[in-house]
Amino acid sequence: MSQVVTAAPDYAGQFAAWSSAVPLPAPLADMRRDAFQSFEQLGFPTTRLEEWRFTNVAPITKIPFVAPEGASSLSRESLDRLQLPQLGGAELVFVNGRLAPDLSSTTGLPDGVRVAGLAEMLAGQAGAVAGRVGQLAGAAGQAFTALNTAFLGDGAVVEVDDGVVVETPIHLLFVTSPDTAPVLSQPRVVVSAGANSQVCLVESHAGTGEGAYLSNAVSEMWVADHAVVDHYVVAREADAGYHVGQLVATLGRASNFSSHAITLGGAIVRNEARVILGGEGGECTLNGLYLGTGRQLVDNQTTIDHATPHCDSHELYKGILDGQSRAVFNGKIIVRLDAQKTDAKQSNKALLLSEGAQVTTKPQLEIFADDVKCTHGATVGQLDDEALFYLRSRALSEEQARQLLVHAFAADLLGHIKVGAIREQLDALLLERLPVGS
Amino acid sequence: MLEVSNLQASAGQREILKGIDLKVNPGEVHAIMGPNGSGKSTLAGVLAGRDGLEVTGGSATFKEQDLLELEPEERAREGVFLAFQYPVEIPGVNNAYLLKAALNEVRKHRGEPELDAMDFMTLIRERMQLLEMDDTLLNRPVNEGFSGGEKKRNEIFQLAVLEPSLAILDETDSGLDIDALKIVANGVNAMRSPERSMVVVTHYQRLLHYIVPDFVHVLSGGRIVKSGGKELALELEEKGYGWIESAPAVV
Predict the structure, then answer these.
(1) What's the fold here for domain B2-93+165-239?
(2) CA angle at residue B241 from B237 to B246, to 5 degrees?
(3) For B141-170, how does the pLDDT look when each residue is reduced to its tens digit (9 = 90+)?
(4) B144 shares contact with chain A (CB less than 8 Å)
(5) Which residues of B fall within a CB distance of 8 Å from A413?
(6) In chain B, where are the structural domains located?
(7) How far B36 CA lies from chain A's nearest CA (Å)?
């Protein structure tokens, strides 16, 4: 591993070194070069941009992150110490953005499913994947996506053939482990679910140690006609970790896509999700649960693009904020001219446990069709004093009572998680991390 | 059991209790009656430790302890139970879960082992029959979507499970039709015992036909203005509160 500690971030130098050290097929190498140019032109976003008005990434711009060109190592023990969900199915483990084959296992997958590292796929039969990378998450306009594309190298590929049902969830585990310098980890996830297929994917993002790092992930997902994809992103970054994740999914006719963003830790965590309902009768669910303590900032940005008629979308985000933490929810719903009979529901509910906690909610509806149902709502509340007294009068301590009420607030969201193992393990993680205020 | 002496309390700037004296011995049932605004619910709230009520004078001892020094949960563990006038809906918290947590806290405090799932369910089913409660209420969130009658029954059901030594019923009869009233009263009567005392707060005499008290106290303007036996309740029913009010009611 070669790491250079510099006083100021030098992305141009790193890009030059990266380009020669991490070779790619010609079209992708060009894409990478173009992406770096975009990144240089755009620069990191500032709060002058509408989408970043409440999310100041100045701390990220000042830290000289270094993208490790070679593989990083992590022991099985360190991985186990993170106590990430154990799902029992195929699991790819990435350390600092690079696949760690010795920690990964893809046994037990049914025929017609490929789960592999992106670098390995590109080096072998590049065909389908090479044609997909960067097609949904373009570099234009989004600096973090451009930066991810500029340093394209490794990540996860999941391909499910038509009609194949994958019973056990596939786990993609991204661990960032800063060593001597602040690490820049930039995995790319490319998923394609064929017609009539079904798959459940869990992305876990976690960090070790006390050093700063940036985990900048991009996921692109193709959900074909009648396919069912259930997706989870669990961000459990370390206290000094920054996480920016972008998810773009395009949905075929009568397909069903759900994505759940569970944010349990990290100094700044920004989850962006953009879903294009590109075929009639598609259904999309975006749910989110976020916890904030200390000075954490959690930002959820969603865009649901109803591009075709008869599609439904449901969004429910819930946040529990303590200390001086802040949260942002920005939910955009676009209903195109042809997208009649759209049914879109959006809701963001926040529970503030301290005077210093803050949430900013902005629904954004852009409706061009005339026969649609779109609803949005936002609530911000505190723990109910009367409920606290009721529980205490039933012999529960104040802390127990608070924990019970806070957990109850999150419970209905967990109830939407279909896979029992994920629900139970997330619930356990949640109970361990739940802020209760005072 | 409970000895309240010259108890004064206010809510915000308002003085509500202006010197209450009340002595409740083990096994006794005391009814506190009085017009709206006389301080009945404030008295119940002060005894259970409700926030926002400030004790400005006097004392309350429970089993030889200073009750007013204890946190609400400590009072509950010592054996004080308040049946709420307005039971609180708690979405997301399962009724059975709350009961089990509450019962185990009380048992832990008494130095008894926690009940296992089997013994807990046996106890719960037996007590549910007492209140003629539907099984499905057990697995629903606490009071959420319950009818008024179901909420009050649920309060008395909790009383029956937790077996407190002092039960304070705050207007448990309000909003109940006669059938529900009888069921609730039967439940309460089944829990009467020589070791358990009850303070029944009510506006109407109706409940006292079914839960017959040993003593009746009339609260008016923050003071107990008259005390007597169960016949006092009947007198009040006949004549109303007007004849007895010596002090103007606090509104």
Answers:
(1) Rossmann fold (3.40.50)
(2) 145
(3) 999 999 888 999 999 999 999 999 999 999
(4) no
(5) none
(6) 2-93+165-239
(7) 21
